[in-house]
Write a structure and sequence with these properties.
0% strand; 82% helix; mainly alpha; MetI-like_sf; MetI-like; transmembrane; transmembrane helix
């Protein structure tokens, strides 16, 4: 216990970095998820094919492979393009940017299917009723589609978020000083690797537990007044 107190600042800093990484990647994932769902449900064949290719490729490649590919290959590619075109100088892709961007794009594919399924679960008659009442598309989306989409998507959203939060641990491989990286470094330097990894285990369990409780409360809020069969 005294050993953990001695390294508590390192563990706290790692936890804060993990939370920042998870939230940043979540924003990116939501943007890609909403755009992907829109593309899959649109009548544009090109948009449908691009969205299908995106979700198929991203979900078919291991997360760690994509993170390594973006971090190492992305930086080399950007600098080669910059050298050839002269549009920019040397670009260094940080561990945080590579991790947050890659995890965001990865889980954007999963959120695409979550949002698409949620929108398809909305009774078509409600949307047609809005159209017959002369509502604009923006009003139909704001008053009919969006509130119900959130309610239908929340169970899948919760599952995706919890998995995404744990996936942030992979970024420690490329040197980002997150919870896993700091815990591993402290454990290796003190010879008490099990103790520090157990501490990381407890912290991750707390983060996922708190997230689950909060999202369940949100789900209860959006389900108020809903009559269950």
């Amino acid at each position: 216990m005294n050993l953990l107190l001695e390294y508590q600042s390192q563990l706290i800093d790692g936890t804060i970095m993990t939370i920042k990484l998870a939230l940043t990647s979540l924003v990116i994932a939501l943007i890609f998820g909403l755009l992907g769902a829109w593309a899959k449900l649109s009548h544009n064949r090109l948009a449908q094919r691009l969205a299908a290719a995106y979700t198929t490729i991203v979900r078919g490649v291991p997360d760690l492979v994509l993170i390594l590919l973006v971090f190492f290959g992305g930086q080399v590619t950007l600098n080669k393009i910059g050298a050839v075109t002269g549009l920019w100088g040397y670009v260094e892709v940080s561990q945080f940017a590579a991790g947050a961007g890659t995890i965001g794009v990865i889980f954007g594919a999963y959120f695409t299917e979550t949002f698409r399924g949620a929108i398809m679960a909305i009774p078509r008659g409600q949307i047609e009723a809005g159209i017959s009442c002369g509502m604009r598309k923006s009003l139909i989306f704001r008053h009919i589609i969006w509130p119900q989409m959130i309610r239908y998507a929340l169970p899948g959203f919760t599952n995706n978020w919890l998995v995404q939060l744990k996936t942030t641990a992979l970024v420690s491989v490329i040197g980002l000083q997150d919870l896993v990286y700091n815990a591993f470094t402290a454990g290796r330097s003190t010879g008490q690797l099990f103790t520090f990894m157990a501490a990381a285990f407890v912290i991750y369990l707390l983060l996922t537990g708190i997230s689950d409780l909060l999202l369940r409360a949100v789900e209860r809020h959006y389900n108020r007044g809903v009559v269950r069969a």
